[in-house]
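Anyone else keep sequences and structure tokens together like this?

Example one:
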Amino acid sequence: MYIILVYDIGEKRVVKMLKLCRQYLNWIQNSVFEGELTESQLRELKMKAKKIMVQEVDSLIIFTSRNERWLDKEVIGKEKNELDNFI
């Protein structure tokens, strides 16, 4: 499934969350990631994220779609992290 993940995490925990998300998804922009995950990978990511978060003050938002082709993506201005497909 295709995932867009956005987080708002306290300053003391933000580096841990950034490193975790980079293990699973592609970094797009400040605290925004996207990519393909299996259901088990998504469960694992959520479980690990919950261990980093203080749920009373931090937030993690995950948008899911069956496939990236079901989304239209428009970037206005400079794209922070262009995803190149290379072999």
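And example two:
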Amino acid sequence: MKNVTPKECPALLAAGYAYLDVRTVEEFEAGHPAGAYNVPVMTRGPMGMQPNPAFAKVVAAQFPKTAKLVVGCQSGMRSLRACEELAAAGFTDVANMECGFGGARDPYGNVTPGWQACGLPTESGKPAGRTYAEIQAAAKAR
């Protein structure tokens, strides 16, 4: 696994990487990198955020384990967890996007800009074939 900055991502995407957004469905629909796929690594439950037990299985149904994936979240924490889980599941080329979609704060409170603040292409809503509901349904059909 490697770490990349938002500014490094467009070159990776142009080189054949897919962007995997591991935020919640609601966060994804509110705005995400253009072309991103959504498979949440954590889901909201009655006790707050909980690990998605189907995460690696659903990702594996969408992408082969040799797929080149840039993994992002809101600030870089969930995506790091997701990359570790994907690597443990046998994915061989995953890159954690540090700072995520919204940016991250260092221990001194300084903000490092994320995807959106870097002015990179975004979209919102439910893109056909890239929503968690569709990806999850396809995984169950296999």
